[in-house]
């Protein structure tokens, strides 16, 4: 059985993916009885307000609590963790060393999922504790592949991952918003401008995922002296690429700062 300690939005996304893919047996604990009632009614999962009950019936434990709550949760469950438990943490910024020190556990994996998991199109990055067995890694990869793509990287890449895929959806949404607003300024209705922008973004991503590089696609669309060339010139003149790089790097630095407070 898979147990979730914390029944928030990301836990719900993973529960939905797991049930759709394999119908796994699931138990969820949360301090909000209202939230548990919602999850029980919608997904027909077992629920409890007792985190230790999750340990007693589960082999895989997913820590899906807020980073600010991780200290209290680990203190509560550490005496109940045994060798049969595989512990998976999706608490943002919480490092493996902290968790292994608190829980005295060897079967431990950290995962950074992102918001598109809610739509089944997430990007989850998995960082196992050194010495993790292949079967445990496979278990975690199987779980998170139900909500999108999965990549295994060492934990020292997690700050960059947080900036790219964690913060990335907000950056893409900002660009989509800006494109649609430009359409409105030129006389297109807000709803039509959003449809145009979203479908253009979706089609572009599909082409890139099929193997075309960004440079190749850009060249394909751009004619000398044409409309695209003029628009790209303005983007370059306004240092958009530099601004994007600065935003991603700033997000990564902030992720490092926050994880260093443990």
Number of strands: 8
What is the average of the pLDDT values? Answer: 96
Percent range for helical residues? 40-55%
Task: Indicate how many domains the architecture comprises.
Answer: 2
Question: What's the number of helices?
Answer: 12
Report the C-alpha radius of gyration, rounded: 21 Å
Quick one: CATH class of the largest domain?
A: Alpha Beta
Shape: elongated
Q: Strand sequence of the main sheet, in spatial order?
A: 3-2-1-4-5-6-7-8
User: Which range does the strand content fall in?
Assistant: 5-15%
Oligomer: single chain
Shape-level CATH architecture of the largest domain: 3-Layer(aba) Sandwich
What is the CATH H-level superfamily of the largest domain? NAD(P)-binding Rossmann-like Domain
CATH-defined fold name of the largest domain: Rossmann fold
InterPro entries: 6-PGluconate_DH-like_C_sf (IPR008927), NAD(P)-bd_dom_sf (IPR036291), P5C_Rdtase_cat_N (IPR028939), P5CR-like_CS (IPR053790), P5CR_dimer (IPR029036), Pyrroline-COOH_reductase (IPR000304)
EC number: 1.5.1.2
Organism: hydrothermal vent metagenome
GO cellular component, one term: cytoplasm
Features:
ProC C-terminal domain-like fold; proline biosynthesis; Rossmann fold; 8 strands; 55% helix; alpha/beta; 262 residues; elongated
Q: What does it look like?
A:
The protein is α/β, with parallel strands linked by helices and 262 residues long. It has 12 helices and 8 strands. It has helices spanning 9-21, 33-43, 51-57, 70-77, 96-103, 134-144, 158-166, 168-185, 190-209, 214-221, 227-237, 240-259, and strands at residues 2-5, 26-29, 46-48, 60-63, 86-89, 108-112, 122-128, 148-152. It has an 8-stranded mixed sheet with strand order 3-2-1-4-5-6-7-8, with helices on both faces. Strand 4, helix 4 (70-77) and strand 5 (86-89) form a beta-alpha-beta unit. Helix 7 crosses helix 12 and helix 8 (168-185) packs across helix 9 (190-209). The model has no long low-confidence stretch (mean pLDDT 96).
């Amino acid at each position: 059985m898979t147990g979730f300690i914390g029944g928030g939005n990301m836990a719900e996304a993973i529960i939905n993916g797991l049930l759709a893919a394999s119908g796994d047996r699931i138990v969820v604990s949360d301090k909000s009885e209202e939230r548990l009632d919602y999850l029980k009614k919608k997904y027909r999962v077992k629920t409890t307000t007792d985190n230790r009950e999750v340990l007693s019936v589960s082999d895989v434990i997913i820590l899906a609590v807020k980073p600010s709550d991780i200290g209290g949760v680990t203190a509560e469950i550490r005496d109940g963790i045994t060798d049969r438990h595989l512990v998976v943490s999706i608490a943002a910024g919480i490092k493996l060393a902290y968790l292994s020190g608190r829980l005295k556990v060897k079967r431990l994996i950290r995962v950074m999922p992102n918001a598109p998991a809610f739509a089944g199109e997430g990007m989850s990055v998995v960082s196992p504790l050194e010495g993790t067995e292949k079967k445990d890694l496979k278990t975690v990869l199987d779980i998170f592949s139900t909500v999108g793509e999965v990549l295994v990287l060492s934990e020292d890449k997690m700050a960059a991952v947080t900036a790219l895929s964690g913060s990335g959806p907000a950056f893409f949404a900002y660009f989509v918003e800006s494109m649609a607003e430009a359409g409105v300024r030129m006389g297109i209705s807000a709803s039509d401008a959003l449809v145009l922008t979203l479908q253009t973004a979706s089609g572009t991503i599909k082409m890139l995922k099929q193997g075309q590089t960004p440079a190749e696609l850009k060249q394909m669309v751009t004619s000398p002296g044409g409309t695209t060339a003029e628009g790209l010139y303005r983007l370059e003149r306004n240092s958009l690429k530099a601004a994007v790089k600065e935003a991603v790097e700033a997000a990564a630095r902030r992720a490092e700062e926050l994880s260093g407070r443990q």
